[in-house]
Amino acid sequence: MGRLFWIITGLSGLLLITLIVSSDTGKTFGIETDTFGYAAVMGLWGLLIGSAVLSRNVSFRETLKQAAIWCLIILGLMTAYVFRYDAQDIVSRISGGLVPGSPISTTQDNGKTQVTLIRSNNGHFEAVAGVNDASVRFLVDTGASAIVLSAQDAQAAGIDTSQLSFTIPTQTANGIGYSAIARIDKLYLGGIERKNLRVMVSEQGRLNQSLLGQQFLESLSSYEKRGDQLTLRD
Known about the structure:
234 residues, alpha+beta, Cathepsin D, subunit A, domain 1, 2 domains, six-stranded mixed barrel, four-stranded antiparallel β-sheet, 6 helices, 32% strand
């Protein structure tokens, strides 16, 4: 049992960590997280049954013993998957404290999502959010009316900036520049998600960091700043 035991144990642990980390995005390796989780668990069951069938030199008693061990491992994995959101809350709290900008997602008593951001060392609130399939570090800017992507972040999110018309004058830290209108399929900050959004894209070299403005903040039920924490409620 030795080698196979450690192989499946390692695969189980890796699978669990992958599901916890990717559950916020809703996809794992481009597949819906629930579908991926189901397929992975079925794959482990198949590996278990296949190993039992092929192990002809193992006694029936030893086979039953191995089956019981693998059943416990897989049931433990399934239990951990069911409670993955609780595990993710713990992970996000740790990462939020260690890496400012990492969203700390929790579920309120009314079932709504709440995201907390920790003030960065530069004195501002930043938010690491997903835009389409890209990770973008936003500056939370209550003075900005829109969600504004830098040209680099827009390209990472799959927007073809060469096809945009930069005709809207905007004031940036680098002076007067021009922006264009674009659409993104989704934006997700922790457990808060918005779909089919109209955003602004700044021309190349005019914006150093993307801005999360009132367009996003006003879509929330509320938000408040207390000390070094900014709390966003869906």
